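WARN  no MSA supplied for this record, continuing single-sequence
INFO  ligand: magnesium ion
INFO  echoing inputs
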Amino acid sequence: MKRLFLSLLALCAVATASAQTKVIAHRGFHATQNSYDNTISALKHAQALRVFGSELDVNETTDGELIVIHGARHRDIPNVQAADFQTVRALPLINGEVVPTLDEYLKQGRKSKATKLIIELKRHATPEQEARVVAKTLAAVKKHKLNKRVEYISFSRYICDELARTAPKGTQIAYLNGELSPAQCKERGFTGIDYHINTLKQHPEWIKQAHDLGMTVNVWTVNDAETMQWFIDHGVDYITTDNPLELNRLLGK
Ligand code: MG
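INFO  complex generated
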């Protein structure tokens, strides 16, 4: 009887941990037939899976267009931030899709209420440009009435600071670069940490510290089942993955 009780308890603990961990498709669900990172089709596939979030990367071209592409390189363009929009757009991605604008991405984002957009603002050359990218992104998200259905992430401390200073109250902002403790992030007004696998494995105590501060914990980019399970067992809120099907399977979805 005692053994049965303990087994049930263990089962409940696993179920609770699993229920808490949510799936974020890294650059959309691109690892599927005919899709590619950061494309509209990758977002559609993520939406079809009804994952919690679909991540995307935002860069600004020389003529001020916000585009969704990881960068810096695109085909024979060494740095999309040093090219104009038409030059980037004229070169299709390897699956034949064009590089989408942020506006096109947000339009598609509106079509699913299940899947949030996790917007990564890439580093840019100057603080002025980073501030402009933040302002333009916030305006675009507002225009599409998506304020409550997006979260922001960045490696740039300056971008996260700008978001904390200028985004609407309640906006979720997580820092990617990994050198700040949860308390240091909280102090700057960030709402979460979104750190590399190795950073969180070196600092597993940061998971609880973040939770005690009311912050979220996201980990990137986890593609194998064993590491996914480690982070599920350690109670992270989000796992960012190129393999959302495997993560869904582990979570019993
Ligand atoms: Mg990214």
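Residues 55, 57, 120 surround magnesium ion (CB under 6 Å).
INFO  checksum written, moving to next record
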